[in-house]
Write a sequence for this structure.
């Protein structure tokens, strides 16, 4: 008995699911605008050194005679409270904030995916234990906790003095403590996905042929959970940037002279009366970055929603 | 005929509802089942929902463990050797939507470590051809195929590792009626050409009649009757079998000539009735049925046909 | 239902205990010798007391034992002394608690009311222009850094317009109530914006789902006006998940409170914890953080129980 041939789709290789998704995303205007803004923002921040050499500026050069200068030809946005060029600092600060955002999210994802997969795959007691732990993390007041974590004496943890005194320690400390507290959304999402997938017949079929847990998780679970992870991760980056800037503003985040958008607002209240615009720029950039990440995440969620993919 | 699969006094019990403090109840999904499947034989497992047939099928395929008794394949305990494969009921969850069909079909070979990637791919294409799907199906994704076609892909996957026994758990139930016969005929052709034994789980007696060599009837986890196909359909011994055959809708028959023998509904497997578990619904039930569970013994006059009833025909 | 509640309460107590242990470890990791820090604020220090403390809390003691002694002290009501303010911890945290409560209660009430109104408005016509404006507003609130918004408010309302005072440190109990309240307007406004941003989305989603359900459509078919429908039928059901979510967002409210209090000089719990960590005031930091954690755990416990109680489908388990 013959079966009618399948209609060919212009070529042998059918369209990958990712290509389909990209075309849906392309139609979602806020998401595409956000994506473009983010790309522009990244370009803006990471061209800092190029801009500096082009304009002949040094980000660390202090000039107490040139404090609070209004915008001029050399200093497009003026100078700050110790004479440094504001625009350049904003660019460098952006580099730091964005890098921390991505790194802390990546580490947080690693933790969240592990917790979620274990909870969803093992089920039973392990699941309830992990979920209770996650619920606890969610309920905790994050900023006070982070303030404490940031103030910990690393020497007491057993780290050698060279590390404790090194200039990049504040950077890495922020990355690590934020990733330690902000993995919960991802864990929940991954757990939900794993629970559904682990009971699908195709997983059972693989078990019949001898498939074991690492194979199942790597080949079947994770690829099918990839999209919710991407959505959650994008939204997490926004949150992480907010957290880092809050901590830097409070003085426990990235330490000066390394600029970040947060610590540029550290003495904000004095700036309020003397140079209000200096208080507006960093926050504006944070706001712009975070809101575009949120719009992008929302757009991704809509694009990846299986309900809009009915076939 | 040599015995391929021997199920010996197997029980599968689950603890339900136990928590940190409570002990929970025991769900006897499969209770003291003894059954044998021979080479090239098609044994149908028939029962209503809650009868335990899916659980039984899964244990045979290696997807669950037994609480008591044993299952042996050619005398040895079960292991994932590729000799037993399984086909599932829902074609829409049987294939990983992220994998190319060719990879889906080749997956058992990959898991069993047989052959190199290219050989596996070739073999997958061969199988797709055998289930009458076009050659380029291997380069497509599952969502591009209909339910019937997906079930064929699942069959191709089950055959790719050259199994000797396939457990088919209601493979036709989720398909459109017009497609069912196509897939059914495919299964039968494949069975002929390949020396394949089949454990065919179904609640559809018409299909069973078409396909099976022997039939086992399951009720609340226990076997109530085992017989050859003709023996069961022409001369059912157990009252439950008789009621099932009677209750099956026959096209063209008027309502008045069908009297219902089955009363009530199937009880929960958490609370099986004492003695013979069928007695609350049985038209022949007497006192002894409430107290003593009947053993599986030969029906009067017909060896080879076993029934578990105190008053079997 | 009773058994479920008891189990949840027992679990919550266990979690609280574990959290207190973790916090104790964490705060012990702050720079400085814990015994010194704990004794510094104590006006009646004697060599015997020092020796006794060393025996109980010294670095050479195993961590679990130190924690156990500390817990015992806590249970008997001895909260210790603040090393930065030379007062008993209660005298530092008691008033702080009062200030934070004022802030939180007003914020909670105003933001719940506002988000119910805005969320319902948005839900009437999903995709309409009102919905788009409200949704964008909610997005913007959630995406902005709290201290920056606070700063903007300061610049606009305090410096330029001189409507409200900039810091609350100048509060004098002798001032009239209205004057005192004026110090709180900006902090409350800032915190409210954040909560509203979060809640509006939940209210909107929940309301949309409820309004689409069958029994509402029956009410519409009966000819009831939209406002009546919302008031009499939809509100109660739409609010069930929302109420519990609000209780669960207590933690982020406390986080926001820390920032706002520090910005505006409100002497609340958040600021007390921050100052304590900065000044290595072991006792205040520990008690303050413990308190904040316990309150959030309590709020989530209440949310859990309330959810089980309000939704009859769950309470029948």
């Amino acid at each position: 008995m013959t079966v009618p041939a399948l209609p060919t789709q212009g070529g042998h290789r059918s369209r990958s699911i990712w290509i389909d998704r990209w075309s849906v995303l392309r139609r979602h205007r806020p998401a595409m605008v956000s994506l473009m803004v983010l790309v522009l923002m990244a370009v803006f921040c990471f061209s800092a050194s190029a801009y500096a050499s082009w304009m002949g500026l040094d980000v660390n050069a202090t000039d107490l005679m040139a404090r609070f200068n209004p915008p001029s030809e050399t200093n497009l946005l003026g100078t700050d409270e110790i004479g440094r060029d504001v625009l350049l600092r904003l660019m460098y600060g952006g580099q730091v904030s964005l890098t921390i955002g991505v790194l802390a999210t990546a580490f947080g994802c690693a933790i969240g995916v592990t917790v979620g997969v274990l909870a969803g795959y093992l089920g039973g007691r392990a699941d309830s234990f992990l979920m209770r732990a996650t619920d606890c993390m969610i309920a905790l007041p994050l900023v006070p906790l982070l303030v404490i974590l940031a103030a910990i004496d690393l020497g007491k943890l057993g780290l050698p003095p060279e590390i404790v005194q090194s200039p990049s320690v504040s950077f890495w400390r922020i990355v690590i403590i934020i990733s330690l507290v902000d993995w919960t959304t991802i864990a929940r999402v991954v757990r939900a996905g794993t629970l559904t997938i682990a009971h699908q017949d195709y997983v059972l079929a693989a078990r019949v042929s001898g498939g074991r847990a690492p194979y199942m998780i790597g080949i079947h679970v994770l690829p099918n959970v990839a999209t919710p992870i991407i959505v959650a991760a994008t939204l997490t980056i926004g949150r992480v940037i907010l957290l880092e800037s809050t901590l830097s503003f409070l003085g426990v985040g990235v330490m000066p002279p390394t600029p970040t958008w947060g610590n540029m607002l550290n003495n904000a209240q004095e700036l309020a009366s003397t140079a209000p615009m200096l208080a507006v720029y960093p926050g504006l950039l944070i706001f712009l970055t975070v809101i575009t990440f949120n719009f992008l995440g929302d757009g991704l969620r809509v694009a990846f929603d299986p309900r809009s993919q009915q076939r | 005929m040599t015995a391929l699969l021997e199920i010996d006094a197997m029980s599968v019990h689950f603890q339900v509802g136990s928590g940190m403090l409570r002990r929970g109840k025991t769900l006897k999904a499969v209770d003291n089942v003894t059954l044998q499947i021979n080479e090239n034989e098609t044994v149908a497992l028939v029962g209503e929902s809650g009868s335990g047939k899916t659980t039984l099928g899964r244990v045979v395929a290696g997807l669950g463990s037994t609480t008591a008794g044993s299952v042996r394949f050619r005398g040895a305990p079960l292991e994932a050797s590729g000799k037993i494969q399984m086909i599932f009921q829902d074609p829409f969850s049987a294939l990983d939507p992220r994998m190319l069909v060719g990879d889906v079909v080749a997956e058992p070979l990959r898991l069993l470590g047989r052959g190199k990637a290219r050989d596996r791919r070739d073999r997958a294409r061969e199988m797709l051809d055998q289930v009458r799907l076009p050659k380029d199906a291997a380069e497509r994704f599952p969502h591009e195929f209909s339910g019937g076609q997906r079930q064929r892909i699942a069959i191709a996957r089950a055959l790719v590792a050259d199994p000797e026994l396939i457990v088919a758990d209601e493979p036709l139930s989720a398909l459109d009626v017009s497609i069912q016969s196509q897939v059914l005929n495919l299964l039968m052709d494949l069975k002929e050409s390949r020396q394949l034994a089949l454990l065919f789980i179904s609640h559809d007696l018409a299909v069973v009649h078409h396909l099976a060599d022997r039939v086992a009837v399951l009720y609340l986890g226990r076997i109530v009757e085992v017989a050859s196909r003709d023996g069961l359909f022409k001369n059912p011994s157990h009252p439950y079998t008789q009621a099932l055959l009677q209750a099956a809708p026959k096209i063209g028959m008027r309502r008045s000539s069908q009297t219902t023998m089955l009363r009530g509904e199937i009880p929960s497997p958490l609370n099986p009735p004492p003695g013979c578990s069928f007695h609350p619904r049985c038209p022949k039930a007497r006192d002894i049925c409430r107290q003593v569970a009947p053993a599986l013994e030969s029906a009067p006059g017909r060896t080879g046909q076993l029934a578990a009833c105190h008053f079997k025909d | 239902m009773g058994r479920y509640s008891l189990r949840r309460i027992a679990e919550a107590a266990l979690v609280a205990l574990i959290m207190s242990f973790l916090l104790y470890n964490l705060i012990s990791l702050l720079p400085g010798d814990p015994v010194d820090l704990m004794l510094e604020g104590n006006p009646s220090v004697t060599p015997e007391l020092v020796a006794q403390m060393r025996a109980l809390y010294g670095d050479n003691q195993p961590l679990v034992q130190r924690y156990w002694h500390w817990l015992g002290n806590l249970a008997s009501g001895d909260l210790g002394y603040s090393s930065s303010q030379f007062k008993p911890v209660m005298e530092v945290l008691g008033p702080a608690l009062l200030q934070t409560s004022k802030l939180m209660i007003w914020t909670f009430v105003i933001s719940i009311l506002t988000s119910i109104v805005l969320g319902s408005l948005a839900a009437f016509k999903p995709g309409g222009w009102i919905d788009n404006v409200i949704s964008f507003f909610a997005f913007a609130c959630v995406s902005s850094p709290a201290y920056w918004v606070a700063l903007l408010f300061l610049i606009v309302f305090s410096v330029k317009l001189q409507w409200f005072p900039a810091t609350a440190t100048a509060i004098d109990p002798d001032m009239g109530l209205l004057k005192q309240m004026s110090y709180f307007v900006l902090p409350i406004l800032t915190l409210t914006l954040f909560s509203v941003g979060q809640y509006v989305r939940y209210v909107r989603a929940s309301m949309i789902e409820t309004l689409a359900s069958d029994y509402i459509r029956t009410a519409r078919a009966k000819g009831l006006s939209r406002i009546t429908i919302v008031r009499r039928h939809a509100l109660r059901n739409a609010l069930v998940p929302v109420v519990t979510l609000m209780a669960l967002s207590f933690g982020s409210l406390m986080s926001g409170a820390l920032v706002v209090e520090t910005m505006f000089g409100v002497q609340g719990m958040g600021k007390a914890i921050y100052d304590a960590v900065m000044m290595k005031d072991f006792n205040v930091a520990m008690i303050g953080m413990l308190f904040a954690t316990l309150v959030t755990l309590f709020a989530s416990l209440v949310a859990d129980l309330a959810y089980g109680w309000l939704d009859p489908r769950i309470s029948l388990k």
Notes: Chain B touches chain A at residues 58, 61-63, 80-82, 84-86, 88-90, 93-98, 104, 107-108, 111-112, 132-134, 136-137, 139-141, 143-145, 149, 154, 157, 161, 182, 185 (CB under 8 Å). The first strand of chain B starts at residue 3 and ends at 16.
